[in-house]
Amino acid sequence: MKIGVFDSGVGGLTVLKALRDKYKHVDFVYLGDTARVPYGNKSAQTVIRYSLECAEFLMGEGIDLLVVACNSASSYALDSLRESLPIPVFGVIDPGVKKALEITKGKVGVIGTRATISSGVYKRRLEEYGVEVYQKASPLFVPLVEEGMVEGKIAQEIVEYYLKDLKEARVDTLILGCTHYPLLRPLIERYMGDNVKVIDSATVLALEIEPFVKEKGLSYLELNFTDISPNLEFLIELILGEVDKPRLVSLPCKV
Amino acid sequence: MKIGVFDSGVGGLTVLKALRDKYKHVDFVYLGDTARVPYGNKSAQTVIRYSLECAEFLMGEGIDLLVVACNSASSYALDSLRESLPIPVFGVIDPGVKKALEITKGKVGVIGTRATISSGVYKRRLEEYGVEVYQKASPLFVPLVEEGMVEGKIAQEIVEYYLKDLKEARVDTLILGCTHYPLLRPLIERYMGDNVKVIDSATVLALEIEPFVKEKGLSYLELNFTDISPNLEFLIELILGEVDKPRLVSLPCKV
Question: Please, what are the domains in chain A?
Fold first, then answer.
């Protein structure tokens, strides 16, 4: 079985890692659209178009199941993807919501890109269950992570800048609504304190797709990127914990 | 006469503004490739491809002269553009170098995106004239400006973080090697102190193209963008000081 995973860039490798840790006998094809990263500050229309193009590429690689590892793409493009693809499609929103509902005492914070937060998708789903939701767009977190600045004074202050309101609102649970954010998790947890449970979607997502996964044979991994910049291999190793050669690919596209 | 100006996003509007201030009777067509912004953390190969696509779009609009307002694109794509276009092409590197050579006492600092600094183009040109050059990639400045965070504690600390070495090296002149950076100029000047002359390319560039400019009639301005995100109009007004409706366009492209 072959699972396709796409993200706007390297952040989705955090999701890929959780999937690979759980399913050791499945093939994975990853696509990071690094030529157009980030998606999170672009319009819904553009995010949907890019997502369809990424999916088209992965379908060409013969995948049996698609994981949208990008929260911005999951927020806007999931319906379009499900309509146009003949295979199961999973996003990262529902798993995060599910986990939050399991553990919250009633007040959930959500952080994400401008696109994810504007879509209001986390807020709507959580409020359906009577949960109070406090959300905050945190657009500088992605460039921080992409610069590898996941600790130190500047990262700390930016964490404080974005999370201050959520801490004051005394949320008991915080959803990391962007696949880049798990890399800032230690700083975020330290700032929010022991009483706040921080969750990301990767582990729950890995459980959610279980009924669709058929494991057999060895696991093969292919890492595709639309742009290979000098620090890409460093970031791959930082996230996956192993060295894998990225392959440069072209997408059928329009901008 | 019609002048085409392109940039990876909104930063090039600082160059457009300087050109419009000087040439009041010329038509301008601007293209911001906001669907793929930023260019500065992408590879040379991708930056060249994108630049050729932007130029192709502007040629289709009937321009007589092309200004590459993006430093990353000027660093890597100027030769390719000049080879493939039948009109004069100007970048933002040479004007910055020229101005720096005029005023420096011997030590020049250069800040820019990762792409611009890695290209080494400022360093090589300045060193040809026996100038000592200290350069520093400052990749967080672009997202700061795009978030409108051009003052306050976080912006100040990021300015200090990137400029510390240049200040300690006692540069007497500092080139803002990215069209986004003029928006951080007040903070940068305050940190570097009165003894350091801060220069950006826009004004010098406007002088440099003078022999090629034929003014007549009224000035027409067309603002094209490949993605229109919610805060685009705010940024246009912040930089141009006037409200102009952006037009959403598609480029013939490949990613």
Answer: 2-91+204-248 (3.40.50.1860), 93-201 (3.40.50.1860)
